[in-house]
Design goal:
The chain folds into two domains: 189 residues, Vaccinia Virus protein VP39 (Rossmann fold, 3-Layer(aba) Sandwich), CATH 3.40.50; 100 residues, DNA polymerase, domain 1. Helix content is 39%, strand content 14%. It has a seven-stranded mixed beta sheet, with helices on both faces.
Length: 310
């Protein structure tokens, strides 16, 4: 089930609002530098960075997003202050060094609202879920070709779905043409509780993460940071669920020099070395006003750091 880029379907304007814009300004309010927007999406953070006077490299692996960025930022492209590339952020080590890097991880509003992509469980779109249509397998093909045991593992690991086995048993080996068909199948075995979440939410999250290899992409991206972020450079990462945030938190702790040796060992043997320090403790979340104006911001968690001077 392939998704072809149709220029008619590329929106001239994005519906995506950047989360935590004031915090992004705070992190990157320094003398003009070269900044990587590693998940440019709708371009909200790209615009903030350009307005702060930075030179920006904006990348995204979604060709729809890249086309939309080129349409909406044409004037900046002409000035040379902005370059846009179709690229997964896991491949960013080829782009040189940066004074700052931002990554807003996960699904964008534009992707969710695109009625050709299948990300929304309320959509009659083909059940695809690939951020990059060139990826090898769609969500529909994954379900059709996976056993109950394989799907149970995927739903457990990537969706933390408590009804994983029941849902997997109901859908594995079946052909679902549209997102709404799958959502109805999930709802038939997992009834709505008091939670605000639709019963299909965690299943869709798990399938999307697996199809796009999102967690491994994130790990690879983070592994490049010490090599491409200059001394005193700043990094901000915005995540939207615990699986992403745990990876980011652990990597930040490593960079902050946290010893991971067992407590019974009297001295550090893990070689922990501090190469960065936090710009604040823990995570920053959106305030009530932002959440009211942009519901997507409710689950946003931002961590930020500054590399050592040398």
């Amino acid at each position: 089930m392939n998704v072809e880029i149709n220029k008619v379907s590329v929106r001239a304007a994005t519906s995506h609002l950047p989360v935590l814009p004031e915090r992004v300004k705070e992190v990157f309010s320094f003398a003009h530098g070269r900044i990587l927007d590693a998940t440019a999406g709708g371009g909200g953070h790209t615009r903030i960075l350009l307005e702060l006077g930075h030179e920006v490299v904006a990348i995204d692996r979604d060709p729809f997003a890249v086309e939309r960025l080129r349409n909406n930022f044409n004037s900046f492209l002409k000035t040379g202050k902005l370059s846009i590339k179709k690229m997964a952020f896991a491949d960013c080590e080829t782009l040189g060094e940066f004074d700052g890097i931002i990554a807003d991880i996960g699904l964008s509003s534009d992707q969710l609202l695109d009625d050709t992509r299948g990300f929304s469980f309320n959509s009659n779109a083909p059940l695809d879920m690939r951020m990059d249509p060139s990826l090898s397998i769609s969500a529909s093909e994954l379900i059709l070709n996976s056993s109950t045991e394989e799907l149970t593992s995927i739903l457990h690991e990537y969706g933390e779905e408590p009804y994983a086995w029941r849902i997997a048993r109901a859908i594995s080996g079946k052909r679902f043409e549209t997102s709404i068909e799958l959502a109805e199948a999930v709802r038939s075995v997992k009834k709505r509780r008091k939670s605000r979440l639709d019963p299909a939410t965690l299943t869709f999250q798990a399938l999307r993460i697996y199809v796009n290899d999102e967690l491994n992409q994130l790990r690879t991206f983070l592994s490049h940071i010490p090599k491409i972020l200059k001394p005193s450079g700043r990094l901000a990462v915005i995540s939207f669920h615990s699986l992403e945030d745990k990876i980011v938190k652990n990597k930040f702790s490593e960079w902050f020099g946290k010893c991971v040796c067992p407590p019974r060992i009297p001295e550090c043997r893990c070689g922990a070395k501090r190469i960065a320090y936090p710009l604040w403790n823990g995570v920053i979340k959106a305030d009530i006003n932002e959440c009211n104006n942009n519901p997507r911001a409710r689950s946003a968690r931002m961590r930020a750091l500054k590399m050592n001077d040398e």
